[in-house]
Every structure is written in C-alpha cells, then in structure tokens.
Design goal:
By secondary structure, this protein is mostly helical. The chain is 72% helix and 5% strand. It contains 20 helices and 5 strands.
Length: 440
C-alpha cells in the first residue's frame, strides 16, 4: 500500500489530487475545532467522557471529538448517510426516483440534489435533538433562568450552526469525489477516527492498571484486543483481494480483412464489491434508536415509558439484539449495493453482442441466471465476512463485560477498508496512465 502511494506521488496529476484531498482533510479538522456559540462545552465534554463505551462515545470518535466539544461539525456525516440510505431505498419503491436513476448524469445530479435537501432536513432534526441534549446536561450559556428572547435566539443560532456544519461536511466530501482521491465521505470518517486513535493508549493504560489489581477479565482484554485488531486487518485485506473469475470465450469473427475475437478471458467478481459502505450505513441506521434515547433520556424510565424503555435498551451496543440487527443490516446493505451496481441482464447482453459466451451456458437468459446465482453466493460470503468481523468485538465485549471492545472493531473495520479503497483508486488511476513502475 505504501509503495502504491509512493508511486502515485511521482505523477503530477495524482500528486495534485492527493494534496487536494489532504487540504480538505485539514479543513475538516479545523472545522472540528470551531466552537458553536452559546455552549459551555466543558459540561458536555465531561459527560461524554463518561460515555466512552456507549453510542455517544462512538459518535465522538467518528466525529474526531467534535461531538463532545459541540463544535461546528458535531453532527458529522450522519445526516448525509441517513439521507443517502433513505433516497436509495425510495429509488426502488418510487417510480419517479427510479426513472431519475436511469436518466444518466442529469438524473444522478437531480438525485444528489434531493439527497442534499433530505440531509438538510435530517440535520435540522438532529440539531434540535442535540440542542435538547445540551440543555439537559446544563451545557447552555443561555438556558433556564435567562430571558426568553435570549433562550430562543441562542437556540436558533446553535441549531443552524449544527445544520450548516453538516451541510459543509457534505460539500467537502463531494469536492473530494470530484477533485480528490477516493470516496469523500468515507475519507472524512477515516480522518475523524484516526484523529481519536490516541485514546487507545489511555484505554490500554487503564486496563493495565486494572489488570495489576487482579481484574482477570482485563488481562484477557489486553491479550485479545491486539489479536482482534490483527485478525480484522487480515480479514479485510483478504476480503478486498478475493474475487471469483467467471471464464468467458469469444468466438472468432472476420470484419473486412481483420479477424477479431478467439481469445479467452474472464469476468472478475469481487467478494467485497461494496467496500466499507455497508458497515457505515448499517452502523448509522442501527444507532438511530440509541441517538433518540440519548437526546431524550427520560424515555429510558420504565415506569413512565415501559415500551420505549425496553425498545431503547434492546439497542444497547453491547447487547445481543443490537449485534443481530447490526449483522442483518450489513448483509442487507451488501445485497442492496450489489443490486444497484451490478446488472446481470446487461452483462449477458453485452457478452452476446460481442460474441462472448460462458462455457456451458447459452447466451441470453441462461447466462444472466448463472451470473445472478454466482453473484448471490459471492455477495453472501462477502457480507458474512464483514458482519462477523464487525460483531466479533461486540460478542467478546458481552462475554468479558468490557465496553471498550464493542465499538473498536467497527472503527478498525472502517479505517482499514477506507485505506484499501483509496489505495485501489490510486492503482486504477495509475493503470489508466500506464504507469511503468506499477505495471512491471
């Protein structure tokens, strides 16, 4: 991977793209440090510090500390991710959106605009919920006891700041997509997680102190955590490199005085075609109940809200129900992504138009049925690998009763996946430019 980046740096165009991506990451990190006015962030930071193993601790890691500091980018990319999920699901259900998806570049631009507006609406809802969370933690400078006008004015400024920050992050991600390298949103999430990696050392020190006091479970955690991290990295590398090759034979044909075809090739189908996005989407969707519960903690009171309390507690990030839902969402989003990116009927038609056949299968429907069958098996294997890697730390956390493990696996999964996807993007650019050092 490092060799890929070193070779890419030698190409002027790729060097400009890498520098532009780095500039966007720097701007993103600066935005994570810009404070939102009228907030006493010390009270919120202290509260989030005690939630290190919870959903809010996970949010804080994903946002690079912006959540606990109540900075401009506190909502991070969550509104955009949720909006993307909603629009992609509605594209299958609503004919008008489905027609837009098939209209080429113009249709995709319209869908992107709709996603932006939906993301702004979700950001507004989350911003209002975040405001109530701040008020519940006494983290507002103009809270209860202040004049009503000051309370309203500060509330409007705080909510609009959060919404503006979320939309700015979305714009920064789109700039990376257009002028940089890799998937913009994934890279910003990657930057947020990496910036919080220093907390690993403080967690390890705390575990060492507890292990020295005779806490056997922390001894196991100190041994298992590095092994889990290595296993996750190995699994993701294997998963990204694995592929199924469907053999294809092209018949010979004469056009004028030249003969075409006659060669044998293959259709490569990667085991993990959707990359790390299903994990990001699944974690964002599975975290919605916990987010609502965090914004409105009174819902956890079983005497006042018995149904809401039991429902929200079921989505505890260390619980078995959350692990099962998380696994099913990862598998579901894998299938959904593959269905939107791969069209077996179109592949079969292209093969037939170019006199290509898969040995043992007639052109047309038999070929498309075979590709669909292979695609389903490969997608399930890739989804199962991702799901097991994602929920393994949750299972170990439940066994040893250590909350720090339950969310670390997902973070490492995202970091490794984004790094490999970015390296793959660089390799694609270098292949298109016939980079001599890479092709040899």
């Amino acid at each position: 991977m490092f060799e890929t980046f070193r070779n890419a740096w030698k190409i002027e165009d790729l060097r400009k793209k890498l520098l532009f991506t780095l500039l966007i990451i720097v701007l993103f990190r600066l935005g994570c440090a810009v404070p939102v006015p009228f907030i006493a962030k010390e009270a919120l930071t202290a509260w989030v510090g005690g939630q290190s193993g919870s959903l809010f601790g996970y949010f804080d890691m994903l946002t690079g500390g912006s959540f606990s500091r109540a900075s401009l980018f506190a909502l991070s990319v969550t509104p955009y991710i949720n909006a993307s999920i909603i629009i992609q699901l509605l594209t299958v259900a609503i004919p008008a959106l489905e027609r837009l998806a098939k209209e080429g570049e113009d249709g995709r631009r319209k869908l992107t605009r709709i996603t932006r507006y939906t993301g702004a609406g979700i950001a507004l809802g989350l911003g209002i919920g975040y405001y109530f969370l701040l008020r519940g933690q006494d983290a507002l400078l103009y809270g209860a006891g202040k004049p009503v006008f000051e309370q309203i004015f500060s509330a409007v400024v705080i909510v609009l700041s959060f919404v503006a920050g979320s939309m700015l992050i979305q714009w920064l991600g789109e700039q990376i997509d257009v002028k940089g390298i890799g998937n913009g949103i994934s890279i910003l999430i990657f930057a947020g997680i990496v910036s919080r990696m220093t907390s690993v050392f403080s967690t390890a020190k705390a575990w060492i102190d507890l292990a020295a006091q005779g806490e056997v479970r922390f001894i196991f955690a100190l041994v298992l955590t590095p092994l889990i991290a290595i296993a996750v990295v190995v699994f993701i590398v294997i998963l990204n490199a694995a592929e199924r090759r469907i053999p294809v034979m092209y018949a010979k044909r004469v056009v004028g005085r030249k003969m075409y075809g006659g060669q044998n090739t293959h259709i490569p189908i990667k085991v993990n075609m959707s990359g790390v996005m299903p994990v990001i989407f699944a974690s964002a969707l599975a975290s919605i109940p916990g987010t609502i519960g965090g914004f409105f903690p009174n819902l956890y009171d079983p005497s006042a809200h018995p149904f809401a309390s039991s429902f929200l507690r079921a989505f505890n990030t260390t619980g078995w129900f959350y692990a099962v839902i998380y696994l099913l969402l990862i598998i579901g989003f894998n299938y959904f992504y593959v269905a939107t990116q791969y069209n077996p009927v179109e592949i079969a038609n292209n093969l037939r138009s170019n006199s290509g056949t898969i040995p043992g299968y007639r052109p047309g429907k038999p070929t498309s049925d075979f590709i669909t069958k292979v695609l389903g098996k490969i997608t399930f294997i890739g989804a199962l690998f991702l799901g097991v890697v994602a929920i393994l730390p949750i299972v170990l956390s439940a066994i040893f009763q250590i909350s720090g493990l339950s969310l670390g696996g997902t973070s490492l999964l995202i970091v490794v996946g984004v790094a490999l996807d970015t390296a793959r993007s660089l390799e694609s650019y270098m292949l298109m430019r016939h980079h001599k050092g890479f092709l040899e």
